[in-house]
Q: What sequence folds into this?
């Protein structure tokens, strides 16, 4: 998915990608039956008919299926070259506009194999979307194997946030966050902690697990090192190649988040501690994230020194922005 609009400097083809196929507008990407997508900087008309409220009245071509087909074609065309493929599925995101209008914004061609389950329709669709995502990824892995590229290709799989409560879907129905508290737009780990699955047959031990704390900025230096390039020292992330290849764990990380939708909120992960501030004037909540992964017990009163360390960090953690201002008064 691109961020921007036609002619914008941030278009994928103007940011280093040789080929692009997908959405340019994240709002339009809510609709999984769009009337057009973009190939590089050219519109590709589709057979769907979309009303003004971002809801398709005629649904014939499902965007995620087109993304899978495009990815397979890319692999076929570049099998003899070094390549980087970024496959950004929109599954299982909801069509929020359709959800508000019809109560079910979980768009999928059919709800198989869950059609006979005694679930709300939105939950059947949600499960079918995830199964379709799994099948698409499976096709990509199978094509790598068929092309003889399996042992020469590192595959990373992750998500952008925790389970959502949109389009009629209920994140509690399937306990999608497991023991973690919260969902998308929360700064508890149910909203921001996601899995990272890495597959490299013969190099990364199958079925191994690691609790190393990481964030998305670590991908670039990690990929660079695995490809034999030297990561730039100015990057925000660090390479996790040592962790993935079983050489060593990386050092302890301190991570910072802030979120402005619905009011300014902050969070910090520092070693085994997780701190959350729900407004500029609210006291810090503190959780022992290792022994209390559900963030059920606020232990700030029991650990004033830890709170003080995190308070000091927060004073320099951000730069004020006119686009995302922080109002210090109630």
A:
């Amino acid at each position: 998915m691109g961020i921007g609009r036609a002619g914008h400097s941030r278009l994928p083809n103007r940011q280093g990608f040789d080929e692009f196929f997908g959405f340019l507008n994240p709002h339009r990407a809510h609709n999984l039956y769009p009337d057009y997508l973009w190939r590089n900087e050219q519109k590709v008309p589709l057979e769907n008919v979309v009303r003004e409220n971002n809801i398709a009245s005629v649904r014939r071509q499902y965007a995620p299926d087109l993304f899978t087909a495009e990815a397979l074609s890319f692999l076929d065309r570049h099998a003899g070259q070094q390549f980087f493929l970024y496959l950004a599925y929109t599954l299982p995101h909801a069509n929020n506009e359709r959800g508000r209008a019809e109560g079910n914004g979980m768009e999928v061609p059919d709800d198989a194999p869950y059609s006979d389950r005694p679930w709300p329709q939105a939950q059947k669709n949600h499960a079918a979307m995830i199964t379709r995502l799994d099948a698409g990824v499976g096709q990509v892995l199978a094509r790598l194997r068929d092309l003889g590229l399996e042992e020469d290709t590192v595959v990373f799989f992750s998500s952008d946030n925790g389970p959502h409560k949109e389009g009629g879907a209920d994140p509690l129905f399937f306990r999608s966050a497991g023991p973690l508290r919260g969902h998308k737009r929360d700064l508890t780990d149910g909203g921001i902690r996601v899995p990272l699955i890495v597959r490299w047959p013969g190099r990364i031990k199958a079925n191994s697990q690691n609790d190393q704390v990481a964030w998305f900025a670590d991908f670039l230096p990690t990929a660079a090192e695995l490809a034999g390039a030297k990561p730039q020292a100015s990057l925000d992330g660090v390479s996790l190649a040592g962790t993935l290849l079983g050489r060593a764990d990386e050092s302890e990380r301190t991570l910072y988040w802030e979120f402005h939708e619905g009011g300014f909120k902050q969070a910090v992960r520092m070693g085994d501690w997780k701190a959350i501030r729900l407004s500029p004037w609210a006291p810090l909540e503190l959780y022992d994230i290792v022994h209390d992964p559900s963030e059920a017990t606020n232990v700030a009163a029991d650990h004033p020194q830890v709170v003080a360390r995190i308070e000091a960090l927060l004073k320099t953690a951000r730069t004020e922005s006119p686009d995302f201002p922080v109002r210090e008064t109630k």
The chain has a mean pLDDT of 93.
